[in-house]
Design goal:
- With 169 residues, this protein is an alpha+beta fold.
- The protein has a domain of 118 residues.
- It is built from six helices and seven strands; from the N terminus they run βαββββαβααβαα.
- The protein has a seven-stranded mixed beta sheet, sandwiched between helices.
- The longest helix has 14 residues.
- It starts with a strand and ends in an 8-residue tail after the last helix.
- 27% of the residues are buried.
């Protein structure tokens, strides 16, 4: 497994979502040991991605991730179905949005167009169902704990370098 930057991991997910737009699921939670927000994003046709990130400051999110499995077991798919809601990845082109606003197009219309699959500056390349259930997150986290050790290790290095683990004392 190759550990990649947050941006590279999200680009891989979006690239897979363009090939396989249906069937995406995710489980979100907090890895208290590493102080990270973790996102397990998966599709039966692509496998499972793990993205670990933290808010460095109000303007910057830092993180890493990678594909931790090429296959999604049925029990994992069932786990997410217990308490799933809608989620998606939203991409924006500020220049295109600005041009449309200058033409008199409202932000609501631009957003509604994105939901309908029309790109007026905002696109939603991935939609699916997600859960933030603590039980589901813990089950998935435990199921992949050995496969995500490299990601955890690299995350710790980034977080340590940024002072995430320093106390205020």
């Amino acid at each position: 497994m190759k550990v990649k930057s947050r941006r590279e991991t999200l680009n891989d997910v979006v690239k897979d979502a363009k090939k396989y737009p249906k069937g995406w699921k995710a489980i979100f939670g907090k890895d208290r040991e590493h102080l990270s927000d973790d996102y397990y994003i998966f599709n039966p046709k692509t496998g499972i991605y793990l993205l670990k990130e933290y808010q460095k400051n109000p303007f910057e999110v830092k993180g890493i991730g990678g594909k931790i499995a090429r296959h999604v077991d049925e029990d994992i798919e069932n786990e997410i179905s217990k308490s799933a809601n809608n989620f998606g990845i939203v991409q924006g082109d500020i220049r295109k949005i600005s041009k449309n606003i200058q033409k008199g197009v409202s932000l609501q219309k631009i957003f509604n167009a994105a939901i309908e699959g029309i790109d007026m500056g905002i696109s939603i390349p991935m939609k699916g169902h997600a859960s933030a259930s603590k039980d589901s997150f813990t089950n998935i986290h435990n199921a992949f704990s050995t496969k995500q050790k490299r990601i955890d290790s690299k995350f710790e290095k980034i977080a340590t370098d940024d002072g995430l683990y320093n106390s205020y004392g």
